[in-house]
Amino acid sequence: MQKIANYINGEMVAPVSQSYIDNYNPAQGVVYSLIPDSDERDVAMAYEAAHLAFPAWSQKPAQEKFKILMKIADLISENLEELARAECIDNGKPIKLARTVDIPRAASNFSFYAQAVTQFWSESHAMEHHYLNYTLRQPLGVVACISPWNLPLYLFTWKIAPALAAGNCVIAKPSEVTPMTAYLLSKICIQAGLPKGVLNIVHGNGPKTGMSMVTHPHIHAISFTGGTKTGADIARVAAPMFKKLSLELGGKNPNIIFADCDFDEMLRTTLRSSFSNQGQICLCGSRIFVEKPIYEKFKQAFVSKVSKMQVGNPLHEDTKLGAIVSEQHFKKILSYIDLAQAEGGTVLCGGKAVTMEGEFKNGWYMSPAVIEGLPFDCRTNQEEIFGPIVTITPFETEEEVLMMANSVSYGLSSTVWTQDITRAHRIASYIQAGIVWINCWLVRDLRTPFGGIKSSGVGREGGFEALRFFTEPKNVCLKI
Ligand code: NDP
Questions:
Q1: CATH code of the domain in which 139 resides
Q2: Residue 226 Cβ contacting ligand 1 at under 6 Å
Q3: Is 248 considered catalytic here?
Q4: Which residue of the set 248, 384, 461, 465 is catalytic?
Q5: pLDDT value, residue 284
Q6: For a pocket test of ligand 1, which of 230, 328, 333, 383 has the largest count of ligand atoms closer than 8 A to its C-beta?
Q7: Do residues 378 and 472 share a domain?
Q8: Is residue 396 among the annotated active site residues?
């Protein structure tokens, strides 16, 4: 069976403990590779390597970092097919999604930040010709990047690329549930000539490997994407150590549909925004609010289309819904169907475990569910499910829908469908979310700030925001 290795000091190495964790193929429900069960000793080795690499890497001219990071981007693109296949097998996502979204965006993350760092600037403030202030933006040193399983390589590189571009050395941990493309990235970094120790990838579980990174006394910043509870655990430990923290956490995003919307386009996009990646995208709109005059029309059209969505082998070209990432997550999602019914909801379609045939019979599949009849403040409508379940709720007024949309503890993203542009701007200004899409969904410009408010996180990624996070501003005041 394939054994994944850690990437420390430019080399592929086994964990100090020599222990491994099972890695599952969720489409078949079988163990297909083993990942290092790393502990604080592996993290300490990675730190030593990163610490030694830091002086040279942090002083490299932007143009030289540009060349290496661009090489990594090019190699990701050249290996797109292998990486997409690996992501699909590791995560259960449809191959088409991995090929058109996950892997191309991982390459873009590197090419974007390779270029961004050549354009990065800082401020200067002249004081009536007697003094001049200028602000240096210096890299932090050794930083940690911890990422989740839903968009594995895409979110992993979204952190690593700006951290490296800003001149830091990095210790990174992908989710233990989906380690494969991070492992393949290690090989790409070696091929691209990334100097040893600049990036170190340490595999293992969150409480042991991840926490060893969080508690390490000399790791100065932690960029984390994952669940809100894990984010709180990390903050609790890191805050008294005065570490810089970027936390991208959970969501329970509203999708607000007004009667005057372009119905066909809204319906097409709402199918995607509800069920892409089996609903396991932090930006999926899991609470759908529909203005009363079109509620019945929407319900009929939506349920009819969702009922026809079939789960299938993620490696098949035509598959739109693949497997759920793990047995544990599968059980959690299904438990919300029971909860929704106990709370008075009606399951209009789906919500059942699906047993496939042959080699896929032990995989974790479920039919996409649409639920109605739930109060906006019940648990099903307030807690993040992170699976192929959406609720639909009618509304009468803007005030009412804003109240319901903003009633959750989360505030990551939101979607608004209307032809009335004034109303769209009004909703955008009142909605409690870090991201608002109007008449579209998941359109990403890497220059824009990305992140959430309330329990969805602290800080922003994207564009210069990430370069600012990964640098320390130092003001210098000079008498002229
Ligand atoms: P988790 O919080 O369980 O894990 C995220 C990462 O943190 C994993 O690498 C995990 O390792 C690690 N980890 C777990 N516990 C600790 C710990 N105590 N200390 C340090 N690291 C730890 O999230 P999931 O992987 O389940 O991802 C799903 C969540 O991510 C959802 O809530 C989703 O909304 C959110 N998310 C947010 C996004 C955003 O941009 N705001 C984007 C994508 C997802 P291990 O896998 O070994 O447990």
A1: 3.40.605.10
A2: yes
A3: yes
A4: 248
A5: 98
A6: 230
A7: no
A8: no
Do 388 and 467 fall within a single domain? Answer: no
Same structural domain, 245 and 258: no
Query: Which of 169, 189, 282, 349 does the annotation list as catalytic?
Result: 282
pTM beyond 0.85: the answer is yes
pLDDT along the chain (480 residues), means of 10: 97 98 98 98 98 98 97 98 98 98 98 96 90 97 98 98 98 98 98 98 98 97 98 98 98 98 98 98 98 98 97 95 98 98 98 97 98 98 98 98 98 98 98 98 96 97 97 96
Ligand 1, closest atom to CA 250? 34
The boundaries of the domain holding residue 381 are 254-445
Residue labelled with tokens 């592996």: 42
CA-nearest residue, atom 36 of ligand 1: 226
In short, whether 433's Cβ falls inside 6 Å of ligand 1 is no
Number of domains, the chain? 2
pLDDT at residue number 129: 80
Domain annotation covers residue 229: yes
Q: Both 142 and 267 in a single domain?
A: no
* Predicted confidence (pLDDT) per residue in 416-460, tens digit: 999 999 999 999 999 999 999 999 999 999 999 999 999 999 999
Q: Which of 154, 282, 331 to mutate to test ligand 1, by most ligand atoms within 8 A of the CB atom?
A: 282
pLDDT, tens digit (0-9, with 9 covering 90-100), for 35-94:
999 999 999 999 999 999 999 999 999 999 999 999 999 999 999 999 999 999 999 999
pLDDT value for 128: 85
Distance from the alpha carbon of residue 226 to the mean position of ligand 1, in angstroms: 3
Shared-domain flag, residues 239 and 341:
no
